[in-house]
Design a protein that fits this description.
InterPro entries: Cold_shock_CspA, CSD, CSP_DNA-bd, NA-bd_OB-fold. It comes from Kitasatospora paranensis. It holds the Pfam family CSD. Keywords: Cytoplasm. This protein is 0% helix and 54% strand. With 68 residues, the protein is mainly beta. It has one domain: Nucleic acid-binding proteins (OB fold (Dihydrolipoamide Acetyltransferase, E2P)). The chain has a 5-stranded mixed beta barrel with strand order 1-2-3-5-4. It starts with a strand and ends with a strand. 19% of the residues are buried.
Length: 68
């Protein structure tokens, strides 16, 4: 699993952006990909781990879990 930091998350729109720790391009994370955060909501600056998937020719974060 890859790790990163939540750059921003818009709970009213159900998506956000993760900055990968490995310095790769920023990734989109969608509400339904968050599996352990209360209410499927992330907070800015939160550390997460995720699987990388390609959807419609772009990389997105899937199976996102918070890291303590």
């Amino acid at each position: 699993m890859a790790t990163g930091t939540v750059k921003t998350y818009h709970s009213n729109h159900g998506y956000g952006v993760i900055t990968p720790d490995d310095g790769g391009p920023e990734l989109t994370v969608y509400y339904d990909s968050i599996i352990d955060a209360p209410g499927h909501v992330l907070t800015d600056g939160q550390k997460v781990e995720y699987d990388l998937t390609v959807q419609e020719f772009r990389e997105v974060a899937e199976r996102v879990r918070t890291v303590d």
